[in-house]
From TrEMBL:
Residues 389-400 have a biased composition (Low complexity). Residues 32-209 form the Helicase ATP-binding domain. Keywords: ATP-binding, Helicase, Hydrolase, Nucleotide-binding. Belongs to the DEAD box helicase family. One of its GO terms (molecular function) is helicase activity. This is DEAD/DEAH box helicase.
């Protein structure tokens, strides 16, 4: 199947061709035709499946191919709600990239930055508005945004927005949208009962699409655990990073710990930066930009970055601390092993984290290789499955699904779809998907 067969406008196909994208992902192949037919969508899509393109391409097609003159030309005709600032910025970037031959007028509205530039952009007029719920409520209260002309509403990462407590804000925003002649596309990693209930309130006979099992991980990711005493974790991390120069995303549990770890890495001669909720939006944006460009080799993050960081060909993720909720492991390592590329997920696990490791193994329904590093062997072996046994290397089985997580975390997004060749470090070609 090709993008040409989906019925998209020539200007969109031209933008896709220029970016080297030819084959849609499964979520795109199913969602785009249904969206172009004017259906409401309830789409299940995991990180890395190409969901951003799955909704932004038909959205652009609708806005610009319809050529309908809005009654209020400066009021937005489409609204995309996202749970986090980073995801809003990435969706905006994708919309502008795919719509570059359409004269796209789009803007973002999110917290952490000044209100006035956003007010000025809305006053000049946009067709597509990408926003986080909290900041959009601020604009509604200031009457700096008019949502009465919205034709398409998209809820991106709906499960994450509910987990983060945005349901009241979403319902309030819905009260400012037209109830008739509005298309609604809801994208979520899972179809938990609360998602179904939300959809039933404001969607009309949605087409339901599910292309990935909940909490599944890419088969191209190699999982590895290095058991180590907690006091030696930093030394082991430095050992690993100094012996492997690949770009690496490191996850810590706390904001203070992420800052401290980044400082330790910098002092050791590594180019490192930290990203977490206490950083200003400008600091977060700069750190991510430097990491993507290669100016920073190691990005230390809390779970605010577990979903939504859009990074091409990230080869390695290291869990300095295991997440407190097993499902966050899936979201963290979803940054690597995308679009068929190989990835490595390493976890540094101390004795007091063995229960968390057991939870992760049960969630994935697969064993993880346990590999002590010479010179960093723990004083006591990890006890797995509730029994004490020496560390060992275990063969992996293919990942399977598990139940949805009912606990909040922070952040999200995915790369879009078709396959495109990009250089591989070892020679030859590797494939990536559109963003």
């Amino acid at each position: 199947m090709s993008f040409e067969s989906l019925g998209l406008a020539p200007a969109l196909l031209r933008a896709l061709t220029e970016q080297g994208y030819t084959e849609p992902t499964p979520i795109q192949a199913q969602a785009i035709p249904a969206a172009l037919e004017g259906k409401d969508l309830l789409a299940g899509a995991q990180t890395g499946t190409g969901k951003t393109a799955a909704f932004s391409l038909p959205l652009l097609d609708h806005i610009y191919v319809s050529n309908r003159k809005p009654a209020q030309p400066k009021a937005p005709r489409a609204l995309v709600l996202t749970p986090t600032r980073e995801l809003a910025a990435q969706v905006h970037e994708s919309v502008r990239g795919y719509g570059k031959h359409l004269g796209v007028r789009a803007t973002t509205v999110f917290g952490g930055v000044g209100m006035q530039p956003q007010v000025d952009a809305l006053r000049r007029g946009v067709e597509i508005l990408v926003a986080t719920p909290g900041r959009l409520i601020d604009h509604i209260e200031r009457r700096s945004v008019n949502l009465s002309n919205i034709e398409v509403l998209i809820l991106d990462e709906a499960d994450r927005m509910l987990d983060m407590g945005f349901l009241p804000a979403i319902k309030r925003i819905l009260g400012h949208l037209p109830k008739q002649n509005r298309k609604t596309w809801l994208f979520s990693a899972t179809f938990a009962p609360e998602i179904k209930a939300l959809a039933a309130q404001f969607m009309r006979d949605p087409v339901e699409i599910q292309v990935a099992k909940p909490n599944s991980v890419a088969a191209t990711v190699t999982h590895r655990v290095h058991p180590v005493d907690g006091a030696k974790k930093r030394d082991l991390l430095l050992h690993l990073l100094h012996n492997d120069a690949r770009q690496t995303l490191v996850f810590g549990r706390t904001k203070h710990g992420a800052d401290k770890l980044a400082q330790v890495l910098e002092k050791s001669g590594l180019r490192a930066a930290a990203i977490h909720g206490n950083k200003s939006q400008a600091q977060r944006t700069r750190a991510l930009k430097d990491f993507k460009s290669g100016k920073v080799a190691v990005l230390v993050a809390t779970d605010i970055a577990a979903r939504g960081l859009d990074i091409d060909q990230l080869p390695m993720v290291i869990n300095f601390d295991l997440p407190m909720v097993a499902e966050d492991y899936v979201h963290r390592i979803g940054r690597t092993g995308r679009a068929g590329a190989e990835g490595l997920a390493i976890s540094l696990v101390s004795r007091d984290e063995e229960g968390l490791l057991r939870d992760i193994r049960r969630l994935l329904k697969q064993d993880i290789a346990i590999e002590p590093i010479a010179g960093f062997e723990p004083s006591q072996p990890l006890r797995l499955d509730g029994t004490s046994r020496p560390a060992q290397t275990q063969r992996q089985r293919p990942p399977q699904s598990h139940a949805r997580r009912p606990h909040p975390a922070n952040n999200t997004d995915a790369r879009p779809g078709a396959r495109k060749k990009t250089p591989h470090r070892g020679g030859g070609q590797r494939y990536s998907r559109p963003a």
